[in-house]
Amino acid sequence: MKKMINIIWRHLLLIFLVIIWLFPIVWLVVTSFSSYKGVNTFNFFPEEWSIDNYVQLFTRPDTAANFPAWFKNSMIVGVCCCIISTTFVVMVAYAMSCMRFKSRKGIMSFAIIAGMFPGVLSMIAVYFVMKQFGLIDSLFGLVIVYSASSGLGYLICKGFFDTIPASLREAAKIEGASQLTTFVKVVLPLSRPILVYTVINSFLSPWMDFVMARLMIRSKDANDWTVAIGLYNLLDRNLINDYFSVFCAGGVIVAIPISILFVIMQKFYVEGVTGGAVKG
Amino acid sequence: MKAAMKKLLQGFKNFFADFGNAITKGDIWTRLSLIFMGAGYFGRKQYIKGIFMTVFEVLCIIAFVGFFLPYLLKFDTLGDVERVAVFDPVTMTDVVNDYDNSLLILLMGTMGIVFVIAFIFVYILNTRAVYRLQVTEEQGKHINTLAEDIRRFANDRFHITLLALPALGVILFTIVPLIFMVFVAFTNYDENHLAPSKLFTWVGLDNFISLFTTSATATFGYTFVRILAWTLIWAVVATFTTYIGGILLAKLINDKLTYGKRFWRTCFVITIAIPQFVTLLLIGKMFSNYGIINGLLADTGILEFLQSIGLVGEGLSYIPFLTKPGWAHIMIIIINIWIGVPYQMLVATGILMNIPSDQLESARIDGATNRQIFWKIIMPYYLFITGPSLITSFIGNINNFNVIYLLASSGGYVTTDMSMAASQAKEIDLLITWLFTLTNDYSNFKMASVIGIVVFIICAVFTLLTYTRMIAGDKEEEFQ
Fold it and tell me: Which domain holds residue B357?
């Protein structure tokens, strides 16, 4: 009986929390199907439903909203960053977690200190540097800016590598494997959850960030923008009354691929990994 | 901490002592490589390495003399020829004199300094390597062939292979910009001294002094204290609410009494999948003065009720969720819980699932209660793994630009405090958003840099205190 009450109580709590958490999301979705273009202030659900916002998004790009181009730009940047950052993070984490060399502690402290400077502070300097290299307004420049320093974010991944039993690596070493082989064949296959975490994180950061993009992409031409800059721009005071539901539609479209990615990869978070690896 | 400093100093000492040792005890080839970096390798018949190092040296010298030196020579004044454009009636164009660009001098000068330090480092390393080669030969041991040397980079020197590229990225896009910005804090680079048309120069500690002064004309001191306090409160509250919320939610979902774990988790994960700037701008609009929440509250009569108990002023036809200090501060923290908890829940789930199950089983066999298991086994393990991420998220919150900036801009926050407005700040600004506004909207680079340094000092103090306690101990191997 007591157990029954406990079960009911915790499910009610979950339902309550989910309602709170999904409230803005539902509003985003229903507004994206509204035929009224501005901000609807008094009704949660639109009075008239329509898919025109999506049609406009994909088939009628104008000078204010050129979604196909934005999506393509963000995709290119996201994929490139994802590859470079994940590689960097995993490489640094392996060196720091699984290898012992003289300057290791020193480099770790140094990385911590370097990571403590506010990113926005160096942003302005990065902007000056990129301007000298002529990489303003280019996707390549944006990729470099997002992924160049990604090695500093190795700590969480290192924390995971630390939990992989050292005996596994020693066993590999005794059998004559080099560090490279150990890294690729032993440690990486055991690190799927943290790899997934790193991949998702580094793919998402260019989609989520807009400050850096705004600083780096100065062009007034909507073709050069990323999704973040483009959508932010739609909420401009002069545009919001004609484009708010288009903005919502854009938000939904961006979220769909990322949500699918998340749901598929969720299981990696949940699999127990290190539990039985050494026993056999 | 003291021990770490001592170790660092010792390391430096050893580094240079080895160098001195190499010079005094080196033979002709080793000493020759002080001039030609490849010489030592030629002496031991490692020709390819020798050629490579010598070419490297020549390229470095060319780059230094041809590119960095002109800037470094003007580094002390940051240039003294101001840009003057004279209209030439013959060619009908403006003729610009050979002016100095202070910004370029500072930037390239900074790069030049880093370049020289890096070169000296490689140079000393090279001399040491050459000397070690000499010792190996004297002892009659086997000298590695090129192929063997390369193979070492996949084995005992694998860390160098792994770290080379990430380190280069960090140096170019984090270290150099940081040094550059630190330099800017000691100059008068602001809207009245915008390069390239105007010159700027060194002013010493003037900017730091003006950050702490409050007078009729300068309000930086007044603003700074208030924004600093809010930044700290925000960082502490935001970090702990999301961290604890994440663990509790993960526990709630992953308990064996909960059905449909995957479904619940998916519901929360959806909120992460929508980019933060979209949700933040959207929520900002929802809670703005004439947004949907205020509309619904007015419709349902809750607004009247709040007015009657005095929570909302009589004259207002809306609740100033994001437009009045106090209201805005609390709303921002609540919205941040909404943003941050699902993320922490996901991280917590991954880690809680990975707890070695044999430890839990043996504890259960020994008769530990659920509560004991949670506090004695799960939490220490959890803290060990998330310790670093807790520090990072605290630092991240001090620098949490997105939440504050986007909510303030889409909620329509306008400050009514004249002193704050005079130094271009708002009550809900963090140091970091203040810094951004100063640079992006007002080109006040000098004060922005000073604030940046202050932020760094705060972060540094907090991290070093906790970091040494949590990681620097030899706990690393405990769970391996």
Answer: 220-287+322-479
Count of the separate structural domains present in chain A:
1
Structural domain count, chain B: 2
Closest C-alpha among B192, B470, B374 to residue A159:
B470
The answer to whether B292 and A46 have CB atoms below 8 angstroms apart is: no
Q: What is the domain-level CATH number for residue B446?
A: 1.10.3720.10
Cβ contact A159–B452 (<8 Å): no
| Number of Cβ atoms within 10 Å of the Cβ of B463 | 19
Which residues 286-305 of B are in CB contact (within 8 Å) with A? 286, 290-292, 294-296, 299
Q: Tell me: the pLDDT tens digits for B242-296?
A: 998 998 898 888 888 888 888 888 888 888 878 888 889 899 888 888 888 888 8
Q: Which two tokens stand for residue A2?
A: 């007591």
Is B283 in the same domain as B422? yes
The conformation of residue A188, written as its DSSP 8-state character, comes to G
Domain that holds residue A207: 33-276
Q: Which residue has the tokens 């240079």?
A: B16
Looking at residue A165, the DSSP 8-state letter turns out to be: -
The verdict on a CB contact (< 8 Å) between B158 and A92 is: no
B103 and B151 share a domain? yes
Q: Are A211 and B386 within 8 A, CB to CB?
A: no
Q: 């949907």: which residue's tokens?
A: B292
In a domain, B295, yes or no: no
Nearest by CB to B338, from A6, A11, A21: name it. Answer: A21
Asked if residue A210 belongs to a domain, the reply is yes
Which residues are registered as beta bridge partners of B187? Answer: B202
Asked if A143 and A84 touch (Cβ cutoff 8 Å), the reply is yes
Question: Do B168 and B265 lie in a common domain?
Answer: no
In a domain, B306, yes or no: no
Tell me the C-alpha to C-alpha distance, in Å, between residue B44 and each of B35, B48, B143, B349.
17, 11, 8, 57
Q: How confident is the model at residue A44 (pLDDT cuts 50, 70, 90)?
A: confident
The CATH number of residue A254's host domain is 1.10.3720.10
Instruction: Judge contact between B68 and B108, C-beta under 8 A.
Output: yes
CA B468-A118-B163 angle, 5° bins = 65
Q: What's the predicted TM-score (pTM) here?
A: 0.79
Q: At A64, give phi and psi (nearest 5°).
A: -90, -40
Q: Hey, are the CB atoms on B166 and A150 less than 8 Å from each other?
A: yes
